[in-house]
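INFO  loader      accepted 1 record
INFO  loader      residues=417
INFO  predictor   begin
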Amino acid sequence: MLARIAARGDDGVWISLVPAAALRARADELAARGPAGLPLYAVPFAVKDNIDVAGLPTTAACPAFARSPAADATAVRRLLDAGAIVVGKTNLDQFATGLTGARSPYGTPESVFGGDLVPGGSSSGSAVAVAAGQVAFALGTDTAGSGRVPAAFNGIVGLKPTRGLVSTAGVVPACRSLDCVSVFAHDLADAAAVLAVLAAPDPADPWSRSAPVRGRESGARARLALGEDLDFDGDDAVAARFAAVADAAGRRAAGVVRVPTAPLREAGDLLYGGPWVAERLAGLESFLAEHPDDVLPVTRAVIEQGAGHSAVDAFRALHRLQELRAWTDRLWQRADALLLPTVPTTFTRAEVAEQPVARNLVLGRYTQFANLLDLAAVAVPAGTTPDGRPVGVTLLGPAFSDDRLIHIARELIEEAA
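INFO  predictor   done
INFO  writer      dumping tokens
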């Protein structure tokens, strides 16, 4: 593992690494104990640098913000208790604000597919670390799509659990009411194994929720919903690849229903175009005031938009969101999962530099609504375009359908992709 990391050199993936001697000491400790009772015995993993790891700084990709946590985030501690080995902290869009991976003073990693493609964000380093074979899995966070967009750009699985299923204690908040700890993995089985360790209530997290007790899965084929008005930003190659995967998945499903995506996109627009951007400002207002020159201009501009929304705006948006949630709840009476493209197109680092905000919003078109509507999601790779660019698809379902979505992805998507 150390050799693979060293071979890639300064690839913009890592912000800090656990010293090699400490990694070997951890391995020796585990070897002496043995694998009994440790479901993640000696499995190396990476942690997005807005999640605390004791002994390593937490920067959120802002050096002036750096802090030295005395304790691990709950999610990290659960993985360590299961026998995993934390390798280091990974790069991200500053303060987890962005979906490109191009908003960090620590550089912009390139997608493992090359071609100057952005890695996706905000969990850019975590996704590339997994896709490049540097670690077996990685933790990210996902508020607007940060655990799914980088998965699409790097051809791996990105699991966004139900809000509150995995503790966010020890995580630098982006939008505290919406934040999730996410999982990047090479395949669905690995993602499920990690989620099984992470998913548990945490009294240290006021947003923590317990999954309801469910009966045994019936084994019946899933009913699939497909969007009928998809917009791929003019990318015919991605559109064609998605259509092929959707068609194959639909043939395997118990039934297919077509649904408009406009209500979902309207909900997603509330995140940055509505008052939820004020929640980002609520967490960082004092830091921005004290360190005006230590935050990237594009990051500061996005967050400071929150000052333009009133309490009246917030309540109006909450009322509209409840209507959109009711619409979405009715969808699950007709379908078990909704299949959408993870991202409608791809962008290079040069293209993002030309239009950093507009192209960021394009990448969030089919991800930003998930947490606002209280959905679970799993992003899976779906092959490539003829010119070699990655294509990803996402299955979404109601809250606490996480295990069911993984099962449906195996059943309908893996073979189709």
